[in-house]
């Protein structure tokens, strides 16, 4: 869903384990890869994330980054946030708990954008 500020918001729900990640992989990747707007991935309704779910997020973030487009993770539940931090994903993909701060980051010009 596109927000009024031009950011694309993608809401994920459930578990990003093997079956959950595989169930959304194609649709999520298509939504992210075909978009030219910065992407906010809302994780507030994700209650579990496994390494395959992190891989899905990381691969898509790298794809966007290579085109000068930003992706952030927004409002992960405590268990999910702990997993992201433990795996070091937060060092590669910004994670925000505050919506306005996430949007401000996404709307700043990227170092690789022209």
* Computed structural class: alpha/beta
What's the mean pLDDT score?
92
- What's the CATH superfamily, by name? STAS domain
List low-pLDDT spans. Answer: none
How many structurally independent domains? 1
Named at the architecture level, the CATH assignment is 2-Layer Sandwich
CATH topology: Transcription Regulator spoIIAA
Shape: globular
Question: Helix proportion of residues, in percent?
Answer: 40-55%
Describe this entry's structure for a reader.
- This protein is of the alpha/beta class and 114 residues long.
- The chain has one domain: STAS domain (Transcription Regulator spoIIAA, 2-Layer Sandwich), CATH 3.30.750.
- Helices cover 45% and strands 23% of the residues.
- The protein has helices at residues 18-33, 51-66, 78-87, 99-107; strands spanning 8-16, 39-49, 71-74, 95-96.
- It has a 4-stranded parallel sheet.
- The model has no long low-confidence stretch (mean pLDDT 92).
Write a concise synopsis of the structure shown.
This protein has 114 residues and is α/β, with parallel strands linked by helices. It has four helices and four strands.
